Amino acid sequence: MRRFKMLVFSEPFPGREAEFDAWYTGRHLDDICALPGFTTAQRFKLHSVSMGATLNQHLAIYDVETDDPDWVIENMFAMKDTPAMPIDPSFNLDATTVMLYEETTGVVYTKSKG
Predict the structure, then answer these.
(1) pLDDT 10s digit of each residue in the chain, 114 long?
(2) Which DSSP state fits 110?
(3) Are residues 60 and 66 in contact, defined by beta-carbon separation less than 8 angstroms?
(4) pLDDT for position 112
(5) Contact 5/59 with Cβ under 8 angstroms?
(6) Which of helix, strand or coil describes residue 98?
(7) According to the model, what pLDDT value does residue 59 have?
(8) CA distance linking residue 104 with residue 27, whole number of Å
(9) Helix %, strand %, coil % of the chain (to 5)
């Protein structure tokens, strides 16, 4: 089975961050993980930018395992705004970027310093 990371860069509408955070953490991560192909989900908030520019303060990273990644993503978007995956009005879809990356190496760990 092939392994992927789906990265979602997102933003709430101005003044709706608390609502966005409550929905994203309290509902949306579970909704995505209930879909075929998704195995884990985790959210992050931007701490700093060391190089380049960013448009988004919020990042979600999802682990995906599938031999048909196109179907997994198509199915996810087909579920948008259904009872299985309602989208909160605080979520600014126009400010969202979704990218799927295929794993090309294993994880590299720090070498033990003895």
Answers:
(1) 999 999 999 999 999 999 999 999 999 999 999 999 999 999 999 999 999 988 899 999 999 999 999 999 999 999 999 999 999 999 999 999 999 999 999 999 998 876
(2) P
(3) no
(4) 82
(5) no
(6) strand
(7) 98
(8) 31
(9) 25, 30, 40
> How long a stretch of residues is the chain?
114
Amino acid at 52: G
In 3D, which of 55, 66, 70 has the Cα closest to residue 8?
55
Return the structure tokens found at 77. 């978007």
Q: What is the spatial distance between Cα 53 and Cα 10, in angstroms, rounded to a whole number?
A: 15
d(CA 64, CA 52): 28
Nearest by Cα to 45 from 16, 77, 9, 78: 9
CA atoms within 13 A on the CB side of 52: 3
